[in-house]
Design goal:
By secondary structure, the protein is α/β, with parallel strands linked by helices. The protein has one domain: Metal-dependent hydrolases (TIM Barrel, Alpha-Beta Barrel), CATH 3.20.20. The chain is built from eleven helices and eight strands. It has a five-stranded parallel β-sheet. Strand 2, helix 3 and strand 3 form a beta-alpha-beta unit. The longest helix has 16 residues. The termini are close together. The relative contact order is 0.15. The model has no long low-confidence stretch (mean pLDDT about 95).
Length: about 280
Amino acid sequence: MPLIDFHTHFFPDRLMDALWRWFETHAWPIQYKQYADQAVATLRAHGVTRAVSLHYPHQPGMAESLNEWARRLGEKYPDFIVPFGSLHPDDHDKENILRTCFERYGFKGLKFHCHVQKFSPDDPRMAPVYELSQALDRVVLIHCGNGPHFKEKPTQGYGYDVTALSGADRFEKVIRKYPKLRFVVPHLGFEEMDRFVGMLKDYPNLHLDTTMAIGGFFPNPVKRGWFSENADRLIFGTDFPNIPYPWDRELKALRALELGPQAEAQILHDNAAGLLGLASK
Ligand SMILES: [Zn+2]
């Protein structure tokens, strides 16, 4: 059965090293310290048929080289890697970066991370991103839920309280303004999963990815009804290689919900293929 991992992370080696140091200091130990080529081989060995590669510049001025790197990765693995671009809200000439991503590189979407990039989803600096993505029918995957954060020390890792900028209320302002934009919110909107799942019925172009939300790594429980009632709007992803457990932990958790072959095919492949404009089988 075809299997799309909609949420994998690919960075140049030195940046990946820095990312892993951050994770091991502030978040969790990385089980798979694999650079790009090895990570592709591992995913393929596990039966993944395509992977959406995500990066996000944590400072202005980095986006163009990261996007170019992602383009080359996609060219190296044209039948496997689906590269997404990004930019930083403080980048100059966002229009040019976006047009390069969409028109020269042919990227199907963009990835943003409100916590790392320190912006709110309704930040006016993001307006050009949303406007052009909506106009050109591209996907915007945006980590904008307020988790994970550390309740006992809310500034840990980022130096500021991430809940001040992110969250379902701030996101809903944006999706109301751009209802045709195909947003994907990762991690089922963790830690406000009920709120984000509830938004699916109001916003037909919203999708949620399941990354790191279903395998029980975080204690927040998921409800089977979320999956059975929204199988056409949920998308499987893993955060590979930056995960603290075996690759298939979440795949097993999803299958344990016993949603049936049709819902599983939607979540594991069909919904992603539709968003990415890939052949349906
Ligand atoms: Zn991620």
